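User: For my dataset I need records formatted as: sequence, then C-alpha cells, nothing else. Please produce one.
Assistant:
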Amino acid sequence: MAASRQSSRGSKHQQTASSSDSGYGRPPFKNRMALGAFIADPGAYPGQVIFYDDDFVAVRDAFPKATVHALLLPRRPHDALLQRPLEVLAGNEELLGRLRLAAERLRRLVAAELARELGGYSRRDERRQAVLDGEEAVAVAVRGGGRGSEEEEEEEEQQQQQQQQQDSGLPPGRDWAAEVRCGVHAVPSMRHLHVHVVSRDMHSASLRHRKHYNSFNTPFFVALHELPVPPEDPRRNSRNLPGTPYLARDLVCWRCGRNFGNQFRRLKEHLEAEFDEWKRE
C-alpha cells in the first residue's frame, strides 16, 4: 500500500499539510495525542501513510493486532478531536457518510495487501494465482502440441497476456475484502477520532493481552455498518464504559467459538493454528 496524496478540492499540484493547516500546534504529539502527527503533516511519514487528502489520512497501525491493520483519521479540526465516537457519529450523518466512503476505499487497499501476503496459501486463489503466474497459459500452450505457426503462437500469447491483465478475465478467487473489518472502539485509547480497518485473523506479535483481543472481538468494537447506534445502547454512555465487562470477558476464538476463559497464552497458541487454516481456505 504505497502512500498517495489526493486533494479533495481537485488541486492538480502536490500539497503537504502543515500543522497550522489542521489547526494543531507543532509536534511533539505524545501518548494519547500521538495520531495528531499524521493529521498535521502526513507527508512527513511516507513509510506509514497509505493515502491522504484534505479530509482524511490513512496510516498503518504502529502496533497491528492482525496481519494487516490500518487506521483512518479525519483531518478537519472540528472532526478530529472527538473522544466519544458513538455519541458524535450518532448526531453527524455528514461525517459518518464521509467516513464510510473513505473506509471503503481503505478496506479495498487492505484487502489487496492481504491478498498479496496470503493469496499464495489460499485454495480459493489457486486458479487465479496460476493465471497470474503464467502457469495456466503454459498448460494451454502444451495442449496445442506445437502444431500452429509461429505467428499463430505469438498472437495466442499476446491474447493470453491481454486476458491476464484484465481483472474481469481472471478467475474470481477469494473475496479478501470480506475478511476485512471496519469499525471504532466504544472508548478509544487515542484522543483523535479513528476508524480501524483490520483483517479478521488477529494474528500478530503486537496482540499481547486480553484487552487487546477483546477490544476487537466483543461489542466494544462497533462496526461502521452498525452506526449510528440508538440512544438506549449502553455503549453510548462512555462514562460507564471504562468499568464495562466487555474487555474482561472470557477469551473466545473469533473463528471456532472455543472459550479459553482468561487463558490468553492458550488462546494465542490456538490462534496460530486457526490462522494457518484460515489463510488456506
